Amino acid sequence: MRKIPPVCLVLFFLTLVGGIKKKTINIGIFLNDDDHYETSTIALTSVVRRINLYTKVEYLLRPHIFRTQKHEIWKTGQTACNLLRKGVAAIFGPEHPEINSMIQSISTNLEIPQFQTFWNPLQAPFVTNQQPEKPLQIFNLHPSPWSLSKALATLIRENDWKSYAILYESDEALLRLEQPLNQLHPNDPAVAFKALGSPENYRVVLKEVKNSGVLHFVLDCEVERIMDVLKIAKEQNLMTEFHSYILTNLDAHTLDWSELKNIRSNITALRMIDPADPHVKNAALIWNQNMKYDILDTVKNAAIQKELNRTRPKRRTYNDILPSKLLTKTILLYDALNLFISIFSELDSKLNVTLRPLSCESNLTSEHGRLFSDLLILKRNHHLLLQPLTGPITRFDTIGYRRAYRLQIVELEEAKFRVTGTWDSSAPDKLNLTLTQEERVTELKKKIQKRNFRVVSRLGDPYLMRLPDPPGKPLLGNDRFEGYAVDLVSEICKPQHLNCSYTFELVPDGMYGNFDPVTKKWNGIIKELLEYRADLGICDLTITYERRKAVDFTNPFMYLGISILFSKAVKAPPDLLTFSHPLSFEVWIYIATSYLIVSLIMFIVARLNPNDWENPHPCNPYPSERENIWTFRNCCWLTMGSFMTQGCDLLPKGISTRLVVAMWWFFALIMTACYTANMTAFLTSSRMGSTIESAEDLAAQTKIKYGCVDGGATSSFFKDTNFSTYHRMWVQMESADPSVFEKSNKDGVKRVVSSKRKYAFVMESSNIEYEMERNCDLVQVGNLLDSKGYGIAVPFNAPYRKAINEVLLKMQEMGLLQTLKDRWWKEKHGGGKCTKDKQSDDAAATEMGFDNVGGVFVVLAIGVVFSLMMAVCEFLWNVRKVAVRQKITPKAALIQELKFAVNIWARQKTVNAAISMEKFD
Ligand code: GLU
User: Fold this and answer.
1) Are residues 176 and 213 in the same domain?
2) Which of 647, 669, 688 finishes a domain?
3) pLDDT of residue 297 exceeding 60
4) Which of 104, 619, 706, 879 has its CA 20 to 30 A from that of 405?
5) For residue 691, how far is its CA from the centre of ligand 1 (angstroms)?
């Protein structure tokens, strides 16, 4: 025997006492002629049955349910007018906008409450355009466009979407998305709008969207079309884990998602109904039972019995109504009916309302409409006869929209929606998230553990190298490769870290990833990631600004900069002029010039200086003549002797001449010391011949060609630089014939080795280090031109990027990254060969240029100028003395002495009698 559920027994009990006469209340219900008509009818009749059987209510609810077609405006109008003649208490629906605006007008004119349970943006303009004295008769339990828009805005903001595309079916979507669009900052990336058009058009639209690279979507369409759009999105590879969707339709939860079971995209939706709510479950249970059991047929009251029979659902094939499949409008219809009868009974108990017949042609209004409206709007908390299924229905605003309600935020998880939070109209700017951030991270980690990462890379020592196949047994999968990248990924995937698995694949074109501005397409590893054929891109892939615009990168696992790889000079045979190498040619020229100038100055000063005019016959204390030994030849001899550190037997006596000589000695001392010291370094140095020291040196010459990897980060650096030297280098590289670009670092290194110092390769320092560990004839020239890092590239929005970053950080702190580097740089494949050579290179000496010794020249020049001034003073003092002794004017004495001084051939000077009487010292 079938077991009868307890709820039916309660109803049965109620029927036994239901034998009294009840007041009939007609209500008109207009339902859409769609797939949900039956479920809506069941929901309605359930309320009707429960109310009719509820003895405390003195009514017999009499619903008149009409199926409405979109085009049947006139017919529906007639039906409504016929119904009014019977005297109706309220009208529910209809949903079709055109029909609804007609019913709205009738309701408002005749003052009959109308309940709506659907999205109706036309309600606000209609209500505001009514005469002010007319009472509000339209009540909508569906969220108002404004508040639903607010909920979506908050959801988008909380998701932290910086850019997204709105895929919309009708222009009404823009009303729903008004608030999200308002909250955009002018600097935010633009939001793309894409009208979906007809279903045949979806593929074209989604293809365009895919090409634009957008990852976040707001999908606004009828619930029936959601699946069609998403299936095509899946086909277009737009349902990966990097994409996320927000569905604006409140009925998205009712769809069968099993077809999209394996999608990885995050799909979020909002819903008014909580299928897990016991009241909802109970209501659905009753609806199902109403269709199964005939126990209500035992009702004694004939009128009630008749009514029950009339409204019994007649489903041909029976399927259980599941709470999770209930449409918002259905459940709101239930609540609306419940609300109406609850308020009406409250009003009737006070005023005993009569439902008078009305006519569409007359202006006679209902008796209860205005009072009903006042009671519904003014009273805050209504006691409802049945438990409402969408939360408390407390208030309506002046337009007639329901004010307070709550939405659930649901996320698709293996073809089912699970609740991740709620949004409440009383606090519209925030979400109450039930799933914490930690829980999300834990979930993500679990998902990663199950994953096999598709890793794309390219061959290049020591990051990824192909292992030779053993005879007759070719290697497969990851076993084919070894290298730094393989070890790095395997470390990341170890059980103590991400506990994942991975599969290495080679990038088909072997390129790193370069953007072609003409075709507007990427190549290499970046292309693979952009087309979601790989999850990780790893090799010596430099993090650049341009690449970062297309894909995401993890934190760098290696830091480096651009530098120059060049061959060391081979020991040149000793040169005849080796002795001159410690000083540069220009310094030698400066020394020779200084030597001549100082000798000349010495000569002039000595002629001017009276102390250098000596007694030629020391035995004669009163000589008639004086002699000057400082001929130009002697001056040159003195300066030469002191420069050669040999000294000289002739020495000056005047202060100024001694000052000149002292300055020259100082100069000679420093120069000799510098020369000797640098000569020693030169003799012990292994480096010979001319070489380049920096990028500037390279740029300044044309003999040595230089190039870099074609289409890599290094070539981009030179191409995009604003720095003049590097720009000049780029121009030279581009114009070189034959081309100086190479396909890979390996080719570049080969060219450096084979070109015998006629080619330098500009490459990244990490790779230079690697090469220098193995080939001792190679050398890094100059410093790093920039500073950057290698990172693991991932598609934008990759959920595992954060987890990999954490592992990389841990590995860095534990020194694992350095260990890995040492293993592949210094230990494996011939590393560590050239450590000793490096030290001897460090001792290399360079010739001293003018910059090194310029100061000594300056000191010499200052000293000499000073001594010249001294010489002039001494000369003038002597002129004065001569004028006094010879009793001539100072001018005459000056002319006489000057004439003598400039006569460079005169070596003896006649001494005046008065002077000769003075004893010569
Ligand atoms: N690491 C470079 C890149 O990611 C390639 C080598 C280079 O340009 O020096 O493009």
Assistant:
1) yes
2) 688
3) no
4) 104
5) 26
Task: Note the pLDDT tens digit of each residue in 195-244.
Answer: 999 999 999 999 999 988 899 999 999 999 999 999 999 999 999 999 99
Looking at the structure of the chain, the number of domains it has is 4
Give 778's strand partners: 567
Three-state SS across 260-271?
HCCCCCEEEEEE
Rounded to the nearest whole angstrom, what is the distance from the C-alpha of residue 543 to the centroid of ligand 1? 9
The answer to whether the predicted template modeling score (pTM) of the entire model surpasses 0.90 is no
Q: How far is the CA of 741 from the centre of ligand 1 (A)?
A: 12
Tell me the H-state helices in 252-357.
278-292, 302-311, 328-351
Residue 123 and residue 21 share a domain: yes
Residue finishing a domain among 638, 665, 688: 688
Token pair listed for 337: 């009916």
Ligand 1 mean position, distance from CA 542 (Å): 6
* Residue list, annotated binding site for L-glutamate: 542, 547, 714, 764
Give the distance (Å) from ligand 1 centre to CA of residue 682.
38
Residue 800 falls within a domain, yes or no?
A: no
Residue 202 shares a structural domain with residue 265: yes
Name the residue range of residue 96's domain: 7-143+277-378
Q: Is residue 344 part of a domain?
A: yes
**Which atom number of ligand 1 is nearest to the Cα of residue 514?**
10
pLDDT of amino acid 189: 56
Distance 713 CA to ligand 1 centre (A): 4
User: pLDDT digits over 307-364, tens only?
Assistant: 666 666 555 555 788 999 999 999 999 999 999 999 998 898 888 888 999 999 888 9
Measured distance CA(271)–CA(406) in Å, rounded: 9
Instruction: Give the DSSP H/E element, type plus range, for residue 856.
Output: helix 850-886
pLDDT band at 622 (very low <50, low <70, confident <90, very high): confident
- Looking up residue 223, the CATH number of its domain turns out to be 3.40.50.2300
Same domain, 374 and 421: no
> Which residues does ligand 1 sit against, CB inside 6 Å?
512, 540-542, 708-709, 712-714, 763-764
- Pair (58, 113) in one structural domain: yes
Give every CB contact of residue 306 below 8 A, 6+ residues apart in sequence: none
SS3 763: strand
Report whether pLDDT(289) > 90. no
Can you give the CATH number for the domain in which 661 is found? 1.10.287
Q: What is the pLDDT of residue 482?
A: 96
Q: Is 296 in the same domain as 184?
A: no
Mutation choice for ligand 1 from 542, 564, 710, CB with most ligand atoms inside 8 A: 542
* DSSP tag of 381: S
The percentage of the chain sitting over the pLDDT mark of 90, rounded to a whole number, equals 56
Residues 106-143 pLDDT 10s: 999 999 999 999 999 999 999 999 888 889 999 999 99
Best residue for ligand 1 mutational test, from 558, 709, 768 (most atoms within 8 Å of Cβ): 709
Residue in the structure block whose two tokens are 């209501």: 283
313 lies in a domain? Answer: yes
Q: Which atom, in ligand 1's list, is nearest to the CA of 745?
A: 6
Q: Check: CB of residue 267 under 8 Å from CB of residue 373.
A: no
Q: Which atom of ligand 1 lies nearest, measured to the CA of 717?
A: 8
Secondary structure of 22-71 as H, E, C letters: CEEEEEEEEEECCCCHHHHHHHHHHHHHHHHHCCCCCEEEEEEEEEECCC
| 555 CA → ligand 1 middle, Å | 17
Q: Is residue 908 classed as helix, strand or coil in its secondary structure?
A: strand
The protein residue with its alpha carbon nearest to ligand 1, atom 5, reads 712
Residue 913 pLDDT class (50, 70, 90 cuts): very low
Site to probe by mutation for ligand 1, drawn from 456, 507, 509, 512 as the one with most ligand atoms within 8 Å of Cβ, is: 512
- Contact assessment for residue 740 and residue 729, using Cβ atoms and an 8 Å cutoff: no
Whether 130 and 228 map to the same domain: the answer is no
pLDDT at residue number 812? 95
Q: At 829, which amino acid appears?
A: H
Q: Which of 541, 557, 762 to mutate to test the pocket of ligand 1 (most atoms within 8 A of CB)?
A: 541
Does some domain include residue 115? yes
Question: Are residue 118 and residue 11 in the same domain, yes or no?
Answer: yes
Residues making up the binding site: 542, 547, 714, 764
